[in-house]
Write a structure and sequence with these properties.
The chain is of the alpha+beta class. The chain is built from 15 helices and seven strands. It has a five-stranded mixed beta sheet with strand order 3-4-5-6-7. Strands 1-2 form a two-stranded antiparallel ribbon. Strand 4 and strand 5 form a beta hairpin. Helix 3 crosses helix 5 and helix 6 crosses helix 7. The longest helix has 22 residues. The protein is globular. The termini are far apart.
């Protein structure tokens, strides 16, 4: 039976990495809110811009005219930015290039494409369904699945469970299981990677059939209730049950080297409690420091989830010991800008208005990139710590560079 329109699958593609690795996250998440974010809303709006381009509802040049327009997405009002327009255009241009590639094969079967296509993985489970961003195929030749991601968290297409889920859904439906190869492509304009914003990986129907069988087994495990296996890992990021997950709690304590069962003293400063409850970073070995840094995002996300759970409890009238609801700090705004202008412009003049240059992308659209490039400069970013797999080149600090130069001079001294 096909899913009802607008219904979200409890075992969907976007959470596939999580429930595949942690089947217990499904029963533990029942009844817990999975709130959206402004970042997800931005992604939804940018997807919409891309879809409008694909369906011919707007031209690329006209898309820039929508910059500054505010679009409602869920609970958020999202202003369209140059970056969103550029991301949508990259998505569209990538698809145009893929169409040219598959057309060049000159095989007899017709080329078919689907945008925002509903899928139903009938070979896996009746509850396995969702929507595929874009699919392009020629039967007997190649199926291409494209996933457009506007977030900055790097996504790899190789054995990407979400994309393999989409491929199975397309082959269980309109495309059929009739391909020599299946290519999975990520278009991610805001994520830095040595291979650029478009990354590709090729698989085949044999591997995808094996993955479908694995999914079927994992779905069965999600239905074991309290007995469903639980596992902590990087897939926990958006889990609604993260704040109360025992496995995640153990991982966080181990990574921080702290015992969270000890409640900080109410009258102590954060710095004093850090000294009392956490190991000093000055005495950690570099190996232990590296392990702690590897958990930075997970620890931060866990505490974000913990705060969200506490906020929900407090808003519903349930007390959380030692905590209360307060209003966030805000800045003053004009009640009515027209009234302000009418009162003060006759006194102060045009100085009440602030002039500002348009953004670089606006100028590139009007006069071309070549004319703009010589007038731009990209400031050097501040130094920060990143994991080894980060695609940005490592920076050798001046002290280390001086040391290397001295060492090299010493080694060459006997040869000169």
């Amino acid at each position: 039976m096909p899913p009802a329109e607008g219904k979200h699958s409890p075992i969907g593609a976007s959470s596939c990495e999580r429930w595949y690795n942690c089947p217990g996250s499904i029963p533990r998440s029942v009844g817990k809110p999975n709130k959206g974010s402004v970042y997800a809303a931005e992604g939804t709006v940018t997807h919409g811009l891309g879809e409008d381009l694909i369906r011919g509802k707007i031209k690329k040049e006209a898309l820039y005219d929508r910059v500054g327009e505010v679009v409602k997405s869920g609970d958020f009002e999202v202003p369209i930015t140059d970056e969103m327009v550029e991301g949508a255009i990259l998505y569209f241009d990538t698809l145009a290039g893929l169409f040219a590639e598959i057309k060049a094969n000159e095989k007899p079967a017709p080329i078919t494409w689907k945008c925002e296509e509903p899928i139903h993985l009938v070979s896996v489970d009746d509850d396995a369904y969702g929507t595929c961003d874009f699919a392009l195929w020629r039967k007997g030749d190649k199926l291409i699945i494209v996933d457009f991601k506007f977030g900055q968290r790097l996504v790899n297409p190789e054995r990407n469970k979400q994309m393999m889920y989409y491929a199975i859904g397309m082959m269980d439906g309109a495309a059929g299981w009739v391909f020599d190869e299946v290519e999975l492509i990520i278009v991610q304009p805001r994520a830095r990677h040595a291979d650029g914003p478009v990354r590709r990986w090729t698989t085949n129907t044999k591997e995808l059939k094996a993955f479908a069988a694995d999914l079927k087994a994992k779905v069965a495990e999600t239905r074991l209730g309290a007995e469903a296996p639980v596992s902590s890992g990087e897939w926990c990021k958006y889990c609604p049950a993260m704040a109360e997950c025992p496995e995640k709690y153990k991982d966080i304590q181990a990574a921080a080297g702290a015992d969270f069962s000890v409640i900080p003293a109410a009258d102590a400063t954060p710095a004093a409690e850090a000294v009392r409850l956490l190991p000093s970073v000055d005495v950690l070995s570099l190996e232990a420091l590296a392990r702690a840094l590897a958990y930075e995002d997970i620890i931060s996300e866990w505490f974000t989830a913990a705060k969200e759970r506490a906020r929900a409890a407090l808003e519903s009238g349930v007390a959380v010991p030692g905590h209360k609801l307060v209003r966030k700090k805000t800045n003053r705004v004009w009640r009515d800008e027209a009234e302000v202008a009418a009162r003060f412009e006759p006194i102060v003049g045009d100085a009440i208005w602030q002039k500002k240059l348009q953004g670089i992308t606006w100028f590139e659209k009007k006069v071309g990139k070549d004319a703009v490039n010589e007038l731009t400069v990209k400031p050097e970013g501040a130094l920060t710590v990143a994991p080894e797999y980060d695609p940005r080149p490592a920076v050798i600090p001046s002290a280390a560079a001086d040391f290397q130069a001295v060492s090299l001079d010493s080694e060459l001294g006997g040869l000169l």
